[in-house]
Amino acid sequence: MPNRLRTPDLVLWAVTLALGAAGGLALDLLHVPLAWLLGSLGAVAAAGLLGYELAVPPGGRQLGQLLLGAAIGLTFTPAVAEAVAGYAPVMLIGALLSILYGVVAAYSLRRTAGVDDATAFFASVPGGVAEMSILAERHGGHTAPVSLAQSLRILCVVITIPPAITVLGLGGVDPFEPSTLGFDPLGFGALVTLAVAAGALLAWRRVPNAWLLGPMAVAVLVTVTESDLSSMPNPVLNLSQVLIGATLGLRYRRDRLLALRRFLAPAVLSTLVLVGLNVATGAVIGLAVGLPVATMALAVSPGGMAEMSITARILHLGVPIVAAFHVVRIFLVIGFSEMVFRRVFRRAGRPT
What we know:
The chain has helices at about 5-30, 35-50, 60-75, 80-85, 90-115, 115-125, 130-140, 145-165, 185-205, 210-225, 235-250, 255-260, 260-290, 295-300, 305-315, 320-350. The chain is an all-alpha fold and about 350 residues long. The chain has one domain (about 5-350): Na+/H+ antiporter like fold, CATH 1.20.1530.
């Protein structure tokens, strides 16, 4: 971040966000699912691959996550929160299976890419880009391929699952009754203020996905106590998608991909293995517990929590259950991935 604000920085940020918004609007006019996220991601990534320098404002991703987190939390009515809590054992099983599938994908990546154990494992387990890169470095791995593989995982899920759900006609089956809360300017201001405070607190405590989970927790508390502050307007949700999509798009720069071109194909193969196993498991769980298959595909998929929650909201597929599954997975992956690496993956393979 620059020491002081400069005009070129403002111009660069404005161009990036305008490009992302234009991409989102174009796909929205074409009625593409998840238009504002995919359009922003695609437009910014394409410009980056062509060699153009782009950037989002500092805190842009966090703002997008904050707005989305609050919107997710507002879907947890008292009845919905009680229903979601009843699926806790299934959430635990889904999260543990996701870690197991990460191990399977890691074996594939280690064999095909010829990378060390730490790089293969932390590139494959579905955790956050930053968190997995840090853990890989701690165990002697390389952060650049880990970051690329984790980004590819999210990209793969985002560009395949939502369109597939739409083409198959599986959207629009929300297992929970959506909230009918209206928009109130004063209530919205209070909600955002509380969301900022909660996000900042969790970020200070270095909680993963702090700017998503903090606002979500506040909004859940507001909703289950029936405080009824305000709904989240659709244009604000579109803004959150543009901010998140543009940030994802910035990860795909030409120089970065060229430097890791030999790693790219094995990483894509490993990602497909991971995504396929998780989506199949989600479908089985959905049939077993009586939830829509599309909802469980999103809930168990190894995509990012923000991206999958946006997808669930746009396609009306049960945001609370999708968000809850991803919260459980995030904390289990962050909490147990190092132990699994030391006791299962590295011991079973060659030493790093």
